[in-house]
Fold this sequence. Notes:
With 401 residues, the protein is an alpha+beta fold. It folds into four domains: 75 residues, no CATH class; 94 residues, Arc Repressor Mutant, subunit A, CATH 1.10.10; 64 residues; 93 residues, Arc Repressor Mutant, subunit A (Orthogonal Bundle). Helix content is 47%, strand content 12%. The strands form four sheets. It has a three-stranded antiparallel β-sheet. A three-stranded antiparallel β-sheet has the order 4-6-5. A three-stranded antiparallel β-sheet has the order 7-9-8. A hairpin with a 2-residue loop joins strand 11 and strand 12. Helix 1 packs across helix 2. The N and C termini lie far apart (48 Å).
Amino acid sequence: MKDExxxxxxxxxxxxxxxxxxxxxxxxxxxxxxxxxxxDLFVLVLRHQxxxxxxxxxxxxxxxxxxxxxxxxxxxxxxxxxxxxxALTAANRRPFDRRRYSLACLVMAVLEEAAGQTTLRxxxxxxxxxxxxDSGLPVYDPTRLAERxxxxxxxxxxxxxxxxxxRDGETERYSRSAGADALYDVDERLLGQMIAAPVPPSLAExxxxxxxxxxxxxxxxxxxxxxxxxxxxxxxxPVLYFRDLPDEERDWLDHSRGFVYALLEEDLGLQPESRRExxxxxxxxxxxxxxxxxDGSSTVKHAALLLCEILSDRARRAAGGANAVPVGEVIEVIxxxxxxxxxxxxxSSVFTADEHGAEKLARSALDLLCGFGLARMREDSVQALxxxxxxxxxxxxxxxV
Length: 401
């Protein structure tokens, strides 16, 4: 009988651990989690919310909340360091630029005054008025096609997040005609939780002053900061290079390898890969990343994969680590590849077979490689990083990030 009870407790414990692992992974992949979108995961987050809140606070310094009235959970993720290669994306996967970010913020500011419903044309008019009153922003101009497209991208992103819900009409039509309209329901509870910043915008002296976090100036405070920074990198970044870590973070990692590996494997279901240059936490299920490489058949990913062989071979031959390649040479390589590959119809016609198209494709491919921690830009040259070698077509071992 005692053996049967012990076995039952073991099964319950294993089941609880699996539920918590799914909940952690779900929140990392979907920091804004609505019940209507992911009911099974939301139930697990609701069931283990106290434990989850403590786990994230202890290991990453990320706050987490569950809004029962709004039926959503919110994980306030903060990066270990700013990353210019990660951006919100429009419906067509085009990365947000500065204009789209500013318009998204203006729309959210306008929505704070909406009483549950609003229309697209009212939003456009109020965004125009609000931007006119801010000397630091260009005034929104609805007569320009590029401006309307930018506003549509911001609105569609807010629809995707659940802040806006179409009641009547179609958002996309506005990009084609300034006279088009749509009626929206506004989720005011979710709207109030969109911004994840240690310092609220109303209290910050500027956009760059919203990110600083506060830690005690003590040995324990410094260890806590180091733990949060290292684990954020391993959870959220494709690869962690030891040389990029400040001394305190590297010291903490050197003394906490066993703890880090156990946490990644048991709590997150990730597989740590250790190399001389750094660490990576590989997700066998490929669920936690919003982008994968080399998976996919896009022209940019294909070009980036071909560059992996060229750049990593240059790095292997370079003496003394001087393996930086001028971007101009990369553009020439891409132009040559386009003449061979593009004529076969395998690459998108968006990238024209001339110097302008080659430069556009080369910079897009390099941006992708930098975003995955495979390369680094230095002024107007690119340096291959160690992880790039695993994606050389001739490499004996490879895989996805």
